[in-house]
Design brief:
The complex is a heterodimer. By secondary structure, chain A is of the alpha+beta class. Chain A is 43% helix and 26% strand. The termini of chain A are far apart. Chain B has one domain: Rossmann fold (3-Layer(aba) Sandwich), CATH 3.40.50.2300. Chain B is built from five helices and six strands. Chain B has helices at 15-27, 40-48, 69-78, 96-105, 117-133; strands spanning 6-11, 32-37, 57-60, 87-91, 109-112, 145-146. The longest helix of chain B has 17 residues, at 117-133. Chain B is globular, with a radius of gyration of 14 Å. Classes of the chains: A alpha+beta, B alpha/beta. The A-B interface holds A 617, 620-621, 623-625, 627-628, 631-632, 635, 656-657, 660, 664, 671, 675, 694-695, 697-698, 719, 722 and B 14, 16, 20, 92-93, 95-97, 113-120, 149-152. Chain B: InterPro entries: CheY-like_superfamily (IPR011006), Sig_transdc_resp-reg_receiver (IPR001789), TCS_response_regulator (IPR052893).
Chain lengths: 839, 152
Amino acid sequence: MGVDNKKTIPKFLQGGGEMGQIMRDKDWESHVLGDPVNWPLALKFAISTMLNTKFPNFIFWGADFRCFYNDAYRPSLGKDGKHPSILGEKGKEAWSEIWDTIHPLLQQVWQTGEATWSENQLIPFYRNGQIENIYWTFSYSPLISDDESIGGVLTTCTETTEAVLNLQKLEESEDLLKFAIDSAELGTWDYNPQTNEFSGNERLKNWFGIANDDSIELPAAMNVILPKDRSRVADAIKKALGGFNQGKYDITYSIKNQKNHEVKIVRALGKSWFNKNGEAYRFNGTLHDVTEQEKSAEEIKIANRRIKNEKDRFKNIIQNAPAGIAIFKGPECLVEMANISLLDILDKTSSELIGKALFQVLPEIEVEASPLFEEVRRKRKSVRGTEFKLPIKRKGKMEIAYFDFILHPVNEESDDHLEIMLVANEVTDYVTARNVLTENEYQFKNLVMQSPIAKAIFRGTDLKIEMANNRMLNHFWGKTWDDVIGKNLIDVFPELKDQQYISELKEVIRTGQAIRNQESKGMHFKDGKKFEFYIDYVYLPLKEIDGSISGVMITVTDVTDQFLAKEKLVNFSKELKEQVKERTALLNHANKKLQNSIKKLENANDELESFAYVSSHDLQEPLRKIQIYTSRILEQEQKSLTETGKKYFDKITVSASRMRTLIDDLLAFSRMEESKTEFKPTNLNEVLNEVIENLSIKIENTGAKISSSSLPTVKAVPFQMHQVFSNLLGNALKFSKKNRKPLIEISSKSVNRKELINLGLNTSRTYCKVTVKDNGIGFANEMGEHIFEVFKRLHGKSEYEGTGMGLTIVKKIIVNHDGAIQASGMEGEGATFTIYLPI
Amino acid sequence: MSNKPYYIFLIDDDEDDRDLFKDALREISIKTEVVSFNNGLELMAQLEDENNGLPQIIFLDLHMPIIGGEDCLKKIRKNAQFNGIPVVIYSTYYIQQMANRLMGLGANLYIQKPSSFSLLKSILERCIIALLENKVAQEEDTNFVLKENEWE
């Protein structure tokens, strides 16, 4: 080939790199195309262009598609393959493996003269010792030959295998991402701050309750957020878009599905992307449904809180437990913890005790308490105590206190770290109270034993003697304590068998009802003799806490003496009663007799009164005739009478007149009884006026002066009042002093209580008194009461006429009116009559 | 004063009293014609006989057999014909209640027979004057009862 070096190289084959060299070196003489100098012009141009472009070019020339290519195309042929053998070869042979694919395309360009365009076309062919899948983007364009027909096809191409494979890889990684997103159940979102457009994946839209094909405006997306979170979210978005924290976005909030209103808690993670100017052009990220997580977190929170509460409560319970609780650590008994009750018991504050060695704070308890702690340490077992006596200084005073307690090893540590828990209950009050009770019981028992009232206690249905006091033993039973203690009642006193006591005691135990009895007659033997006795007794049931009756307490009082005394008394009073009865009968008999006598007397009196009436009545008639005929004789026969005769007639006249007055008075007196009726308001002024009127002649004759004050109206029998005033005034006129004109004063006054009492009048009624006072002859004051007696005359018959009945009648009337009358007088000076009448 | 004597009836079972009454009237200044009856039955027979003239005053004793003075008065006052004749009770006894009752029955005066003849005369005179001459005009001033001891 050295010969050929001298050959002239045609201009169109100059340059062109390796392929230019190859083409120049090729022995074209033996080739069907011959010497390149003779090649058609069109081919020369095309080859020249091809060799000098950096773009991969391939030329199929002529009807059998002879192959030419440049350096840029060569890498597509690989290292061990067609290069450089296919240069100038027929297309059908050079590209036999793809000829079926490319021949139609070449044929199409040849015939139509129009270029083709194929992008990323897979055209696998043999290179690098194997068939490779090669992607091409290529164009077949026609090459016009010298005769202006189509002489070949220019292939401009670029291998895009790498790009396609990269693209494929990218797609694969996108798929992977999508898969990841899908399997992570993430919603994705993407927001363009410049267009305000918001997009999201299907899941997100599902969550939002927005149709899948809807595009979303940001406000609509914000609406999904629950109002409570909305401003917080808006704030976070603003911050992310503003570049805060490099545009990172991480927030959890609640959303509400617009369709089914389901609420979810979501966590949004995202980032803003900024351009050179620092403006956000994209803001995207994911949305994660954290509802369950949040719920769990909330539940955990609640659970934690509950645990804390329980812990607090437990601590509280310990702190406020009514028992004293403390924990001590190590041989020094350092106080780790002590609750309120314990502090109270020890009378210490928390700061005085906690963290201190127990016996330094409370040295007074060391002697008693430290051996207990040592025992716990030694045995590693609880130590208990009841009513444990401990001296404690409280409120500055040493006191003896009692405790029930447990000391309990809490852990299994060595002595240095051993914790001992103390639970202690102070029972000082109880112990003290019990001691007092015991003392009281002792005293009570003493009291019962010494009691003057016999007492005993029997237990059970056998009535076992549990207790009997001295009185019971000595007085009733005549036994010693040793004789009876623990024995059954019936065994000690067999004689009780037939008496009611045993069955009553058993009844008390059976029913629980107390039995009382008084003056019960009993009988027993003492020192071999039979005694009868009378007792008051009470059987009281003794109740247990469960209400059952376990025994009887009996209280017995010996009332034999009282009973017998009472018996005597009863007998005595019975006798007395008999006597009283007898006497009463006698008295009744006497009374009856008396009543009869009174009746008889009353009858006699009545008879007497009616006799007086009848007799005086009937006497009146003949007397009047004696008087009238006497007066006629004196009148008509005066002249024929001697002086002596006249004198005798005068005596007859005087006697008859006296008799007449006597009869009148007797009549008035006896008539009073029959006229008790007709008490009516009687104006004494009117009565007095009538009387004065009736006496007017006498008043005129005597020249008397009568003065009266206003008199009251009394309840009275009017004509009797008339009689009273008539008699009193008549007397005043009658017993006037010679040579002195009668002066009669009538006055009235009210009566005070004292006067009524003195007069023995009824103090519950109102009385008036009327006084009639004269200046007549009067009477000796000591005669005051006698003046009212029947036929009592204080003066001689001849001196003053009258029957002596006038005042008796007055008194009787006044008494009949429940009143009283008093007379007072002075010899020669006058008389005063005071009458008391009820109004 | 008229010349014609006053026509007067007296009913009294006591003959002495009838005589004394007539004697007394004879001796007073007023002229009278007295007819006396032993009892009320006779009086009523006389009064009810229309042929007889009616008296100007009737003096009536109380205690009489057959018909007492009180019943007599009731009969007189029951009859319209004699109702206007003044009736004077003329009795030994005086009981105020009874006197009141009789006044209620229509008696005009009550004279308790006096124990002196001169008093009898003066009482009868006053009585007749009061009832016939002074007529009713004086009645109010005259006590219904003319008792002896109050005239002394």
